[in-house]
Task: structure prediction
Amino acid sequence: MKTTENTSNVYQAVEHILNNYLEMNNHRKTPERYAVLKAVYSIKGHFTLDELGQKLADEYRFPVSRATLYNTLNLFMELRLVIRHRFQGTTKYEACYAGESHCHQICTVCGKVTEVMAPEITEAINQLHLKRFRKDGYSLYVYGICSTCQAVFTRRSKKQKT
Result:
């Protein structure tokens, strides 16, 4: 679990990355960009564009348009501060500072997404040498049926046999 101090340090680091990029490219430092960045890094796990917009409106009292959210997240993806996932027809985003690569297990029935710690996979990918390509990180999706959905199928199957 991340401590408050750790979370604060991460936010300062990503804010510094954003500041440098905006200054070097002569872009404006808008309050919207910083509000979105703060909201993104306060969310634990995956979120949709709508969930992010709702958080900004409800918790930060800083509503922004859907277009602003979309464009800002695209900028953050370019800066490798956010990663976009496409899970079962749903687009979700996730803060991803410092190469926090990981695996996801996705239930093909209910759509539940769970992060999985797999040090063996991380080690294998770290050892992987690719020609003419510098890897920054990875995201692995493992599809299957979660235990909750499997239990439902088992109960239905038993009922049908009786």
Summary: Strands lie at 82-87, 90-95, 102-107, 113-116, 139-144. The two ends are 47 Å apart (CA to CA).
